[in-house]
């Protein structure tokens, strides 16, 4: 496979895990992977990417915080490098950038892909359609295949070497500019980013019982609380936590569904989780058909015991 360019989102001087997953996906199908890093600190981050499989890196430091200028710069870097594919993680920023880059490259965009494979000299992507009921494999006739990749689906590459870093100037022209980004109060992990998601459904009986899920999430240390739509529609939890067809799609390492029946619209948002655990007092609940592990029991008895067990295990190291 010829050259693949990957946009590397970074934070606090380090590439985001989702970006390293996209880099890993590219490295699995090509030996010629160009990492493109943008914004303040791009040079420092670019210097670290050889260790994650990049064969070369481009740093586009500084410039205005403008989505249109960013897309133009990234597309120009792809074009000048002769990249035949452009990948970004399916984060909010990646989803904002990738269609703009695709437009600049006169290409189409495949979003939220769950697999990549080499096909001749090009790439083929896999994408769930219709809430995951159909799995599509897609090629492009466009000059460059552009795709966003679902988080927690690909493994970051390990054991690379040093990548040569080239610096490019950032555009000064822009049409729109990002003025401010306000962090959500509490700084909690987002369901779509967390490696572990503990979700509650109507079986939690009311918002006053969600502390049981928050305590389990806190015991894991790296988990987020999610919710079914029934819960969100009842105003028990914010929409940002909703998992499913009309909520967020998550692919964590571990998904724990508590008091959730397993409606198809909920499954559409979490069925690609690596390990699914269901806790439900109804042994015939549909969620058990998908779950890797099932606990038939009352959430109000199971959750405290599970939280205690996780705390003890973590205390043992
Ligand atoms: C167009 C459309 C889009 C939708 N999008 C979404 C979406 O994005 N996400 C989503 O989640 N849903 C979505 N839905 C709604 C979906 O169809 C279901 O109605 C919803 O997922 C049900 O939520 P639930 O599992 O929490 O509730 P229920 O179906 O009421 O299930 C509650 C479960 O809790 C169990 N339970 C009760 N008490 C206890 C207890 N003490 N301990 C353990 N278990 C207990 C019950 O056995 C039951 O299985 C959508 C529907 C439509 C039509």
Written account of the structure:
This protein is an alpha/beta fold and 317 residues long. It has two domains: 4-169, 3-Layer(aba) Sandwich (Rossmann fold), CATH 3.40.50.620; 196-315, Rossmann fold (3-Layer(aba) Sandwich). 28% of the residues lie in helices and 27% in strands. It is built from nine helices and 17 strands. It has helices spanning 17-29, 42-46, 67-81, 92-104, 211-220, 229-233, 264-270, 287-290, 299-315, and strands at residues 4-8, 10-11, 14-15, 33-38, 56-61, 85-89, 109-113, 115-119, 122-129, 134-138, 145-149, 164-169, 196-200, 223-227, 254-258, 275-280, 293-296. The strands form four sheets. A seven-stranded parallel beta sheet has the order 7-11-6-1-4-5-12, sandwiched between helices. A five-stranded parallel beta sheet has the order 14-13-15-16-17. A three-stranded antiparallel beta sheet has the order 8-9-10. The longest helix has 17 residues, at 299-315. It is elongated, with a radius of gyration of 21 Å. The model has no long low-confidence stretch (mean pLDDT 93). The protein binds flavin-adenine dinucleotide. Flavin-adenine dinucleotide (FAD) binds at residues 201-203, 228-231, 242-247, 259-261, 263, 265-266, 269, 279-282, 285, 298-300. Flavin-adenine dinucleotide (FAD) is lined by residues 201-203, 228-231, 242-247, 259-261, 263, 265-266, 269, 279-282, 285, 298-300.
């Amino acid at each position: 496979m010829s050259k693949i360019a990957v946009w590397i989102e970074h934070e606090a001087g380090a590439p985001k895990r989702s970006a390293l997953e996209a880099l890993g996906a590219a490295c699995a199908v090509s030996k010629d992977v160009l990492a493109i890093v943008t914004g303040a600190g791009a040079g420092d981050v670019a210097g670290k990417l050889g260790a994650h499989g990049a064969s070369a890196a481009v740093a586009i430091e500084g410039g205005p915080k403008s989505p249109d200028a960013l897309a133009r710069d990234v597309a120009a870097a792809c074009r000048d490098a002769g990249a035949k594919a452009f990948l970004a993680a399916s984060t909010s920023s990646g989803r904002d950038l990738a269609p703009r880059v695709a437009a600049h490259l006169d290409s189409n965009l495949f979003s939220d892909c769950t697999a990549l494979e080499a096909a001749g000299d090009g790439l083929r992507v896999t994408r769930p359609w219709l809430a995951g009921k159909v799995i599509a494999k897609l090629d492009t006739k466009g000059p460059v295949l552009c795709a966003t990749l679902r988080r927690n689906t690909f493994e970051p590459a390990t054991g690379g070497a040093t990548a040569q870093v080239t610096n490019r100037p950032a555009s000064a022209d822009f049409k729109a500019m990002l003025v401010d980004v306000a962090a959500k109060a509490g700084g909690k992990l987002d369901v779509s980013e967390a490696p572990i998601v503990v979700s509650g459904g109507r079986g939690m009986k009311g918002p006053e019982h969600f502390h049981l899920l928050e305590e389990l999430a806190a015991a894991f240390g790296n988990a987020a609380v999610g919710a079914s739509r029934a819960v969100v529609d009842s105003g028990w939890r914010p929409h940002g936590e909703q998992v499913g067809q009309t909520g967020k799609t998550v692919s964590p390492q571990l998904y724990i569904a508590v008091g959730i029946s397993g409606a198809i619209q909920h499954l559409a948002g979490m069925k690609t989780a690596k390990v699914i655990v269901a806790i439900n007092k109804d042994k015939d609940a549909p969620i058990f058909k998908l779950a890797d592990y099932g606990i038939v029991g009352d959430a109000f008895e199971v959750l405290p015991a599970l939280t205690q067990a996780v705390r003890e295990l973590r205390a043992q190291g």
